[in-house]
């Protein structure tokens, strides 16, 4: 859609703007500026709107008329879009009303499946539940094995400690027995020695 730009008498325009609005080649504008002593700002020609209107005999009434016509054409183009927007809003409202019948929460949603897709979904859901139960059972078994292992370790530690204490006791008894036997043997040797002396064997 062509949107015309107007030359306003109280505004100023660069050469590029004048070229775009009035469709005049920049070289021609240079010549016009030189002949009419147009002011330069930052080494660029600046055209007053009032000069352009007078020099090119611009008819502002035609610009207004053309702008009004373009606005009307734009309005005609927009009207079908507005109708379409109204139709979409009505359709959206209808869908919201249908969804409200299902009492859907904010964190819920409705999905549409074909019969084959739904059968596949049910099958996968059953498989998932079976796998979930198997995993739960495996977890219980692993926990039981861990518990049994801890109990066995504790049992063998206690058994080892008991055997160690028993061994220490037996060793202590053996040591005492050896000491006793040694003392008895020494006493017996002394007694025999005394008897031998008494009997004049020595």
Structure, described:
The chain is mainly alpha-helical and 202 residues long. It has a domain at 1-58: Molybdopterin biosynthesis moea protein, domain 2, CATH 3.90.105. It has five helices and three strands. The chain has a three-stranded antiparallel sheet with strand order 1-3-2. A hairpin with a 2-residue loop joins strand 2 and strand 3 (44-48). The chain is elongated and about 175 Å long.
Which of globular, elongated, flat, extended, rod-shaped describes the shape? Answer: elongated
Helical content, roughly? over 70%
Instruction: Give the uncertain stretches in residue-range form.
Output: none
Fill in the CATH topology of the domain at 1-58. Molybdopterin biosynthesis moea protein, domain 2
Distance between the termini: 151 Å
Question: SSE order in H/E notation?
Answer: EHHEEHHH
CA gyration radius, whole angstroms: 57 Å
Derived structural class: mainly alpha
What's the count of strands? Answer: 3
Write out the strand line-up for the largest beta sheet, numbering strands in chain order: 1-3-2
CATH architecture name of the domain at 1-58: Alpha-Beta Complex
Mean pLDDT: 81
Question: What's the CATH C level of the domain at 1-58?
Answer: Alpha Beta
What share of the residues does DSSP label as strand, in percent? under 5%
**Biggest sheet layout:** 3 strands, antiparallel
Number of helices: 5
């Amino acid at each position: 859609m062509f949107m015309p730009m107007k030359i306003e008498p109280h505004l100023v325009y660069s050469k590029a703007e004048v070229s775009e609005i009035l469709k005049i080649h920049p070289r021609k504008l240079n010549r016009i500026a030189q002949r009419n002593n147009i002011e330069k700002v930052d080494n660029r020609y600046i055209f007053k709107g009032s000069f352009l209107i007078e020099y090119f005999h611009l008819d502002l009434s035609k610009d207004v008329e053309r702008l009004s016509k373009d606005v009307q054409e734009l309005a005609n183009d927009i009207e079908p879009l507005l109708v379409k927007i109204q139709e979409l809003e009505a359709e959206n409202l209808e869908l919201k009303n249908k969804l409200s019948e299902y009492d859907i929460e904010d964190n819920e949603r409705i999905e549409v499946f074909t019969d084959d897709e739904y059968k596949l979904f049910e099958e996968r859901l059953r498989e998932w539940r079976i796998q979930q139960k198997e995993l739960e059972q495996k977890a219980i078994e692993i926990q039981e094995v861990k518990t049994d292992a801890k109990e066995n370790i504790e049992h063998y530690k206690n058994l080892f400690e008991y055997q160690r204490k028993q061994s220490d006791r037996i060793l202590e008894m053996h040591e005492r027995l050896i000491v006793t036997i040694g003392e008895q043997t020494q006493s017996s040797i002394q007694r025999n020695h005394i008897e031998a002396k008494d009997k004049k064997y020595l």
